[in-house]
Amino acid sequence: MWDLARQQAGRGAWLCADTLGTCFDAARKKKAFGRALRHALDPADLDRMAAGLVSCGLPDPAR
Fold first, then answer.
1. DSSP state of 5
2. Which of 18, 36, 41, 56 has a Cα-to-Cα distance from 6 of 20 to 30 A?
3. What is the Cα gyration radius of the chain?
4. Would residue 38 be called left, alpha or beta, if left means φ above 0 and alpha means ψ between -120 and 50 degrees?
5. CA–CA separation, 39 vs 16, rounded Å?
6. The predicted structure's pLDDT at residue 6
7. Cα torsion 14, 27, 55, 43: sign
8. Nearest 5°: CA angle at 44, between 43 and 47?
9. CA nearest 2: which of 22, 17, 21?
10. CA separation for the pair 10, 50 (Å, rounded)
11. Which pairs count as long-range contacts for 10-15, CB under 8 Å and 24+ apart, including other chains?
12. pTM given for the model
């Protein structure tokens, strides 16, 4: 789930909107998503997260 309005209750992971690609890559390398979400994530999960960002109209974090 992507809560772009930041209104949903519960766990979440923040990304820098102005440097999304750099921020996403740094969080991936540091395994920060797994810690923030308190859930083990595999590379396929992170690829789906990146695709989800793009589907919301945000820049592709792979760029």
1. T
2. 41
3. 11
4. left
5. 21
6. 67
7. negative
8. 90
9. 17
10. 20
11. 11/36, 11/37, 11/38, 12/36, 12/37, 13/37, 15/53, 15/61
12. 0.69
CA distance 18 to 28: 17
The first and second tokens of residue 33, run together, are 């998503």
Question: ∠56-60-62 over CA atoms, to 5°?
Answer: 145
- What pLDDT score was predicted for residue 3? 65
Give pLDDT tens digits along the chain (63 positions).
666 676 776 777 877 777 888 888 899 999 999 998 888 999 999 998 888 887 777 777 765
Q: What's the CA gap between 12 and 15, in Å, rounded?
A: 10
In total, the chain counts a number of residues equal to: 63
